[in-house]
Amino acid sequence: KHEEDLHTEMQYHLLKIGKALGYDPVVASNDRSKSYGEASFSFICRQDFPELPVDKETNNTIKLIDVIWFEKNSNRAVCAFEVEKSTSIYSGILRLSDLAFSLTDHQSAFFIIIPNSRERDVVMQLSRPSITRSNIVIKYILFSELREHCDALCKFGDNHKILEKIARVA
């Protein structure tokens, strides 16, 4: 229960920041009915999942990404986030990679959100040759940093590049 609450909390922070920065955030299709505190995800998120130029199976995989920020009223993904509290870090990396390879412009930013205790694991996974040679840059953000700086990112950020202040590279 505690692990699930942490996952939901991190998704909430990402949705809140995305909304504050002027994006259309979308939560994973299997998490749309969740809420954190008084905040229902269905009220924070865009109601539909934008049409992407991908096959059905890839689309189903992409819809499971924990949070994606889209430009307002478009299908252009700006940022994608996988929260990996206890599950396989590599499965989140694969979902983000599926999205990256499916995008034509490939300008999106990709992030793994992890508990501080998993930093070593994520660095090891992001350093694998299959990732480093793919030209997909996936950064990571620690739970503590996201939690601590959420309100400041909402208040002072004007686009997704504000995340660079707390993101780390393997």
Walk me through this protein's architecture.
- The protein has helices at residues 2-20, 41-44, 56-62, 89-102, 119-126, 129-132, 143-156, and strands at 24-27, 35-36, 39-40, 67-70, 77-83, 109-114, 138-142.
- The chain is α/β, with parallel strands linked by helices and 170 residues long.
- It has a 5-stranded mixed sheet, sandwiched between helices.
- Strand 2 and strand 3 form a beta hairpin.
- Helix 1 runs parallel beside helix 7 (143-156).
- The longest helix has 19 residues, at 2-20.
- The radius of gyration is 15 Å and the shape is globular.
Helix count, DSSP H or I runs of 4 or more residues: 7
| Range of helix content | 40-55%
Question: Mind describing the biggest β-sheet?
Answer: 5 strands, mixed
**Secondary-structure element order, as H and E?**
HEEEHHEEHEHHEH
Strand content: 15-25%
- C-alpha Rg (nearest Å): 15 Å
The number of strands is: 7
Task: Please provide a brief summary of the model.
The protein is an alpha/beta fold and about 170 residues long.
Write the layout of secondary structure elements.
Blueprint: H1 2-20, E1 24-27, E2 35-36, E3 39-40, H2 41-44, H3 56-62, E4 67-70, E5 77-83, H4 89-102, E6 109-114, H5 119-126, H6 129-132, E7 138-142, H7 143-156
Parallel strand pairs: 5-6, 6-7
Antiparallel strand pairs: 1-4, 2-3, 4-5
Key words describing this protein structure:
18% strand; 170 residues; five-stranded mixed β-sheet; globular; alpha/beta; two-stranded antiparallel sheet
